Amino acid sequence: MKIKEIIVVEGKDDTVAIKRALDADTIETNGSAINDETLERIRLAQKVRGVIVFTDPDFPGERIRHIITQNVPGCQHAFLPKHLAIHKTGKGLGVEHASPEAIRDALSNAKQMEHEQVEIISKDDLLMFGLIGGREAADKRERLGKYLNIGYANGKQLHARLKMFGITKEEFLQAIEHINGVESNE
What's the start-to-end Cα distance of the chain, in Å? Predict the structure, then answer.
């Protein structure tokens, strides 16, 4: 499988994992302190071939994603669920620990952010469906993020991502139905 876009990852081990999974070029940020030179390479890549941001499902990975989003508009974003990014020993979390299949799946479900961000799903909707303010909320948000391919997020981030990725009310309700169905079958 060949990917046209250039994939932005955090480090060399991520590049190795990507190349095990498919044929693609990468740009490494070398951590969360992205310098201007790296941002300029990402801008050029976005202009020429397009970019998919594929960072670790942790705080530094989210920080990198945010910096790139602020500085390079129009990038696609791929998310890896935390449980697929954990090292087999349980120590370590990152793209480099994911299976080739999980990497291909995440990249094939990359999403582009919407330029015009309109609130379709309100914070009241999140509360009503138990995604914020309850004991089970974090678990539900994790399953929702996985189903919608937008990654895990806290309540505030989830609200923002639903707008950023233009998730429709229909997609949202279908995802809620799915995660509630999974709950009742467990």
Answer: 35
